[in-house]
Amino acid sequence: MMKTKDLPAVTSTLIDKLKADGYSETVLKNTQWILGHFENYCGKHDIPEINAPVASEFVRECFGFDYYNTTAPMQTVMRRPLLILLEFEESGNYYKTHQRGSTTEIPLVYKDVFLEYRDVVNGLSLCQNSKERKLWIFVKYFEYLEKNNILSLAEIQFQTVHNYINSLNSYAPSTIRCIKSVLREIYDWLYSQKYIPFSGRQVFPMIRKDPRNKLLPYYSKEEVAQLLSCIDTDTASGKCIYAVISILVYLGMRAGDIIRLKFTDIDWNTGTIHFTQHKTGKPLSLPLLDEVKYPLLDYIKNGRHESADPDYVFVTLYAPYTKFSSTSSIFRMVEKCMQTAGINYEGRHHGPHSLRHSLATNMMSENVPVSAIAKILGHSSTKTTETYLTVDETHLKEISLEVPYV
Predict the structure, then answer these.
(1) What is the pTM of this model?
(2) Count of CB atoms within 10 A of residue 146's CB?
(3) Which one in 59, 110, 329, 385 has a CA-CA gap of 20 to 30 Å to 375?
């Protein structure tokens, strides 16, 4: 979190970055003007640290609009300088654009409780996408309540949320699981505020299962080698794909972190990759193994196209060459290589995350401690790591009892 005393220095560095990126004098002056007012506001109110809720209160009090309302007319002029300030302080860069978002209206009858919950969500240490997902689920559920003439929190019954879940018959099972999880959190919060008489855990009991009861699909070392060997590294696109898949199979990085990887994240002298995990917001350092280092160098020197996003290591395979906007491109790379390699993935997941599972399982087969595997995968708890580990057939045979012949 940014200290208020550091705001002038961060602002100055941000302005220099905007200049270097070619922004107009109008944008530079507007950004300086807003951030100057923000600095004065923080000093006047003796605010020691700066975050999104502080920025929200600033624009509400000084300019009378909602910082979190991405459809507001003042989005570009007032909101964007504050957004890029917080992004720049956190990551050293900023998003080039900020979408205006959907025009979904908050049900008026529940507006106050939504605004209260929104402040809670925006205070969480989560990436912006996760926060927006939680708020979207909140709005959709309370829209449902309003449409069904449930116009106060006191009218919410134990069965209400289950009726809502049953109405989502067009959603995929994985999406419904996500919605249930968020609704459990919302109900827990409503219960903690004494708005309702039952908690989310009562509505959606959490059944703990032994993570080893479920054997996740994975790919053996031989299949991983087969996958890499099928890639044509004589072409520019092949060099990119080989570098990406090498990172997946040898380091287990998430696809979302690969597409966000920057040149500043790689320390060639110490042989490490250091980045902030997009999913958790926590830093992670990984060794730059030779199996990753040399494919990366080959791609950067001989396969990477000049790009409008020069800070990012990986750019699209086709013009215009920009950073990847989503992980779907990485999924297609893995799927196509598996098809080319002739790997039978029927009944098995076959995207980038399956290679992350495979790295963990193959490390386990070499008797690498779970704590070490957790560190490589960036897990805070080994319990999370255990859900990645699959006992393969060889290990099952080793631990099984011989059936006596009768």
Answers:
(1) 0.53
(2) 13
(3) 329
